[in-house]
Design goal:
Elements: E1 3-9, H1 13-26, E2 35-40, H2 46-52, E3 56-60, H3 66-79, E4 84-87, H4 96-103, E5 112-116, H5 119-122, H6 126-143, E6 155-158, H7 159-164, H8 173-184, E7 189-193, H9 212-239
């Protein structure tokens, strides 16, 4: 199956070059024109770093959010004729070996493959552990299955299926919304254990707000559950009239 890599990037100039270098080394079967950096309105040298690396660059004129960047990347992947798209964060948290593990995590090209981190062992900040735990609880409850890591950005998306589901979220809640949409249509969801790297606290750069963003994720969960159940009710009513 033809694959690409999508790297959503916002003010990631300091880490992006090493991320791209690692991916090129670990995934030589994916050519540079299928390494897609989606610059989400960066104010630093992110675009320059990406272009110097010789990869494909798509830019937003202003910062729209991670979900918007992923949607842009998925549309670009579709235009390239890719069946699956691996998403890798630009901050260096995802070792290239973990990226390969997720890329090869399922033989089914229609499955959504999720990287699963051990946040405690990896030394993730307590705020991240807490917000991920809340997200896991709510999504597992509404998805009807246990989900081990609902916020990890290292994933493999089936391109056409993901776009066809019509995700609406533009921020971090995009990743939670996609899981619920896949579970609602009973599509395959595969979890793959991965390693991640968290730098020392004074070197960490994150755009994730550990209070505001989990609240937005929960709001999107509730909206998505309501919408999918309403669609199911309408289909059931139409079938029985």
């Amino acid at each position: 199956m033809k694959a690409c890599v999508i790297i959503p990037a916002y003010d990631a100039a300091a880490s992006l070059a090493s991320v791209l270098e690692e991916l090129k080394r670990e995934l030589p079967e994916i050519p540079p024109d299928r390494l897609i950096v989606v610059d989400d309105g960066s104010r630093d040298g992110t675009v320059t770093v990406a272009r110097e690396a010789g990869v494909r660059v798509v830019s937003h004129a202003k910062n729209l959010g991670k979900g918007a960047a992923l949607s842009t990347g998925l549309r670009e992947a579709r235009d390239l004729g890719c069946a699956v798209a691996l998403t890798v964060d630009a901050d260096g948290q995802h070792p290239a070996a973990s990226a390969r593990a997720v890329l090869e995590g399922s033989a089914d090209p229609h499955a959504l493959v999720l990287g699963v981190r051990d946040l405690v062992r990896s030394g993730a900040p307590r705020a991240n552990q807490f917000s991920n735990g809340i997200s896991n609880f709510f999504l597992s409850r509404f998805a009807g299955r246990t989900l081990s890591d609902t916020q990890c950005g290292l994933r493999r998306y089936p391109v056409e299926e993901t776009l066809a589901l019509g995700p609406r979220s533009t921020g971090y809640a995009f990743e939670a919304e996609i899981i619920l949409l896949f579970c609602a249509v009973r599509a395959g969801v595969v979890e793959v254990p991965i390693e991640v790297v968290y730098p020392p606290e004074d070197e960490r750069v994150t755009h994730f707000d550990s209070v505001r963003d989990p609240a937005r994720i929960i709001a999107v969960v509730l909206r998505t559950v309501f919408a999918t159940r309403l669609r199911s009710l309408r289909r059931f009513t139409a079938y029985n009239t």
